[in-house]
Amino acid sequence: MIPALIYAIPAFVLLVVVEALSFRFLPDDDERGYEVRDTATSLSMGAGSQVIGVPWKAVTVVLYAALYAVSPWHLPASSGWTWLLLFFADDLAYYVFHRAHHRVRVLWASHVAHHSSVHYNLSTALRQSWTPMTTLPFWLPLALVGLPPWMILLQQSISLGYQFFLHTERVDKLWRPVELLFNTPSHHRVHHGSNNVYLDRNYGGILIVWDRLFRTFEPEGERVVYGLTKNIATYNPLRVAFHEYASAWHDVRTARRWRDRAGYLFRPPGWAPGAEG
């Protein structure tokens, strides 16, 4: 099964070009803009994620279908209430997935690729993981409660399509009610910041209400410094995709106790024995 989002890729690439040209003709010294090698890496990561993601999606469909088949409920796609439930359930699943991938190192090893750029533009949205297998468990409950698999996949594509437009410095803060309820470029810039005040904040997908509810929200204030707390200084897509797996494996191999080995895998990124994560 081909993910619906793949049909939007030409439009995404075109919008990347348009945004890059906007920096050329309307430069802003306060914005990072584009850098050729960085953009090429982001596009390469996006292409690789699709090559891996399409066959993996077939596995995902089979597992969703299996859980849907054993579910005691089959919610009707013709009902508006089913779509409303799907919207909120998918967005909450995304929040849980996203938060877990920042707070558990073995999951962060997959997600870190998306945060590895020191630039922030629409091409950054395409800098995706090459190990999508870590996302699967977070959406399985949706199929188990009777949401049809094709609806789950469609809503995932809608959510990711929405999030593409969050990756820009060209849009300032929006109308206050929008900023209150929805994830916006301003909120997501915070999420990509390596400033101490911005770390592990604003995990939302379409809505920002989960962050407000679970106290992980931080408004944009001081200038955002993009990238990682320790940047990897490479444009090699293979290293971008797998460097944290290699680092985690090194820590596990050199640890002396099984307790510490588990900590290096399942505690937050940056954790070490005797230190806070």
Automatic annotation (TrEMBL):
Membrane topology: Multi-pass membrane protein
GO cellular component, one term: membrane
GO biological process, one term: lipid biosynthetic process
Keyword entries, A-Z: Lipid metabolism, Membrane, Oxidoreductase, Transmembrane, Transmembrane helix
GO molecular function: glyceryl-ether monooxygenase activity; iron ion binding
InterPro entries linked: Fatty_acid_hydroxylase, Sterol_desaturase/TMEM195
Domain Fatty acid hydroxylase: 83-216
Pfam families to which the protein is assigned, alphabetical: FA_hydroxylase
Cell compartments where the protein resides: Endomembrane system
Transmembrane spans: 6-26, 47-68, 80-97, 136-154
Domain of life: Bacteria
The protein's name in its UniProt record: Sterol desaturase family protein
Organism the protein comes from: Streptomyces montanisoli
Organism lineage: Bacteria, Bacillati, Actinomycetota, Actinomycetes, Kitasatosporales
